[in-house]
Amino acid sequence: MYLQQLSFINFKNYAEAEISLAEGVNAFVGNNGAGKTNLLDAVHYLSLCKSYFNPIDSQQIKQGSDFFMINGIFKKNGHKEVVACGVKRNQKKQFKRNKKDYQRLADHIGLLPLVMISPYDISIIIEGSEERRKFIDNVISQTDHNYLDELIAYNKVLVNRNALLKQIADTGRYDPELLGVFDEQLIASGMRIFEKRRAFMEVFTGIFNQHYQFISGDAEQVGIGYESQLLQDDFATLLNKSIERDRVLERTTTGVHKDDLQFNIHGMAMKKFGSQGQQKSFLIALKLAQYTFLTQKNGFKPLLLLDDIFDKLDDNRITKLMQMVSNNDFGQVFITDTSLSRVEGIFNKINVSVKLFKVTEGNIDA
Ligand SMILES: Nc1ncnc2c1ncn2[C@@H]1O[C@H](COP(=O)(O)OP(=O)(O)OP(=O)(O)O)[C@@H](O)[C@H]1O
User: Fold this and answer.
1) Where is coiled-coil annotated (predicted)?
2) Is the ipTM of this complex over 0.90?
3) What is this structure's pTM?
4) What domains are there in the chain, each with its CATH number?
């Protein structure tokens, strides 16, 4: 699957642009602020119906305009897929596949899968556990539609249970039966989420380790682990044990909403002991493992978008990484960088042909 043709109007700093893309590696080179990341974001829209960076659609409209339009022609299994996304100020977003409007945007997710690696993703390593749960939930839900419904159901019961705990504290009236009803629902949903996350992590960890060792040239030992209170005790016991604490704190303190991933380097926390380059390598290995996982599950290769990928990596790691993404396990790749000579140098060295685009202040030249 690959994107053949991309065009957009009034999208961020672009008035109008149209490009034909190569099936392999495409590199976009230009100065800071030229519009390289914006271009990747337009591709992200076509795949996931939204910006990677900013959830507010109207803020992607070029300043001074009142709409934007993004069009893409994809080739998938020999067929053409024409996708169009339009946003007008104060109107509902329009999204079309082969000229037909979608009833639900969610129906489009998974049709043209994509993995983006951006400098902003470092939050997965350095921020709180929510970022890491979001990461695994995103990967699992791109291949398992029931999973997203399960998460929504769990969060709904969680909100209701927390509201009841607050009500108990306010009124002093404790109704164990009503709490028991919420507990039953929370346990059923939570157990299914836990089993899916555990099964996912068993496969994912192996893929991640392989990618990290390749990029780093076996330079350091890293690890990831799934942390869940449900690994220690069954959910019903955990809820029973924590009821006094929950009543005092007026919220549910145990469950899969507390799950986390542990990231290590030489047995120590990656967040505290990893260098910037090691953290970046770790992040790239995580995202490439996501790519491999999606390929295995879907049976075809997603698009791979690498924004500002070379920063903080040494020459060895850059070469290894570019060798990796140019091989047959990967499909169409988009790369952005500020230096033309660096991009040319890397791809000459590994003897891979690349389609180069020069980006200047909202203009793209092939
Ligand atoms: N809605 C908008 N209207 C007009 N310009 C916008 C809009 N949104 C963003 N921009 C402009 O787009 C530019 C940023 O583009 P982008 O992030 O793609 O740069 P880049 O080429 O990736 O740069 P860097 O190398 O620094 O990462 C900024 O100048 C920003 O002001």
Assistant:
1) none
2) yes
3) 0.92
4) 1-113+302-366 (3.40.50.300), 128-297 (1.20.1050.90)
